[in-house]
Amino acid sequence: MSEFEKHMNLMFIKTILYIVSILGCVFFILLYIYIFFHVLRNKSEKISSKNVGLGTNYMLMLIISNIGGALTEIILYYKVKEIKDNVPKSFCYSFGFFRNYFELSSVSWISMITFLFYKSTTSKNIEPNEECIQFLIGILYSFILPLLFTLPPYFSEIFEALGPKCSFSKSVSIYAVLFTIHIYLNGILQILALYRSYFFYNQKLKILKEQNIEEYNLLNIYVWIFLLFPIYLILTRTIKLISRLNEEVFLIIGECSFALSGFVDSFVCLFFLRAAIPCCKKEENVLIEEKSITSINIS
Predict the structure, then answer these.
(1) Mind listing the pLDDT tens digit for each residue in 150-199?
(2) CATH number of the domain to which 290 belongs
(3) Three-class SS string for 11-63?
């Protein structure tokens, strides 16, 4: 089997996993639409407006970024499959920009979500006016700021075609280094924010364990599920970095785990969003009180 065939087989597997990620993201969007346009418009009393808001909008933006990144990778696969040779350099410029932009945008939105999670331990529910300001801050940080890391490489023409692959040129790898550092800084800040938040909710869990075991189990699951964000983020990026040193061992694992990141993100988001859907609640008394993790992070 030639190197090209091996590369195409890996790209095919990645494409399947990216499609799985897109399906998970689409399901979240459908659920989002159901809540906002069906339930709230009909003024249903089964879903409180406190269950949907800033946190949900952050998650929607994360899902959109994940879809953009997945579609970019799928387009690359079909482009390479079509030409069956060297990828045009001009295409590499566009591919490199969109891939790096959506990846960094997704990481940034996860940081905004974890920051909101942390803020829930230090303040009360966010006022509507403050929600608008924080959402604009999220747009600036997660949609505008990534352009500063992705546009310079694009206009500097630092991407190069290596057969069916697109990558940074070795002579200007400083962009790749800065890009990687920014991602890891986001991951570290996410872990620190969740680490601080964990102690707050750990105290709450001790109280709930004595008072209501059902609420304790539910809150405990929410806390641990939320930890998936930074853990999976750093794990996948670390494997990808190692794969550059020893491709034979880590390349497949790194690429495939990265392709599934959109599915993992949508899983975490869906797990939180389900708290706003009546059909997903077994009993009304299972709901956590208004200041708990459900109402804070979904609202």
Answers:
(1) 887 666 655 555 555 666 555 556 777 777 788 888 888 888 888 888 77
(2) 1.20.1070.10
(3) HHHHHHHHHHHHHHHHHHHHHHHHHHHHHCCCCCCCCCHHHCCHHHHHHHHHH
Contact call for residues 80 and 91 (beta carbons, < 8 A): no
Give the span between the Cα atoms of 113 and 58, in whole angstroms.
Answer: 6
Number of domains in the chain: 1
**Distance from C-alpha of 254 to C-alpha of 38, rounded to nearest angstrom:** 40
Helix (H) or strand (E) holding 168: strand 165-168
Tens of pLDDT, residue by residue over 179-188, are: 778 888 888 8
Q: How far apart are CA 140 and CA 94, in angstroms?
A: 22
Q: Tokens standing for 1?
A: 């089997």
Which residue segment(s) compose the domain that 209 sits in? 3-298
